[in-house]
Write a structure and sequence with these properties.
- The protein is mostly helical.
- Helix content is about 75%, strand content about 0%.
- It has a single domain, classed as Tetracycline Repressor, domain 2, CATH 1.10.357.10.
- The protein is built from nine helices and no strands.
- Helix 1 crosses helix 6 and helix 4 crosses helix 5.
- It is elongated and about 55 Å long.
Length: about 180
Amino acid sequence: MTKKLSAQAWIDFALATLAREGFEALKADVLARKLGVSRGSFYWHFEDIETFHARVIQHWRQVATETIIADVELQQAPEKRLDVLLRHAFGDGADLEVGMRAWADNNEVAEHALRQVDRRRRTYIEKLLRELGMPAPLAGVRTVVLYWTYLGAAVTHNQLNGRDLDAIVAQLMWFARP
């Protein structure tokens, strides 16, 4: 019996593969072989590899930014929103972030999406800092420093948890005070 995969299953597997193996593995035949299905399954859902890549990138934007922002926005207090955001940023694994950034170095569509995500994230961080009472010019500078700190942590492939995460978040919360 042939395994039936949904388009979303292909996309989810592609994101996991991007995080583990990099963008070079995001080819129909490579993914099909790893999934144990024919390439026909791929082409049943996607017109071509470019369409597939666009859907993967769109889903990455959703899970790596919009879903996190939605989770943060569930908090009432600005301090709590920033705390939750920092815990996501420094507590979640960053392999997907690193994989996406490497892909963006080699693909215009991924690069364009990455620039938009970077802008969205920075705008959101600045909004949180402003809600904490930080003046606009200072919020802009501290946003850049916080975002660069996140990117630096991502490329080290270290995932913080427990006391280490608590200590980093506490220091970053102190840095975010007006």
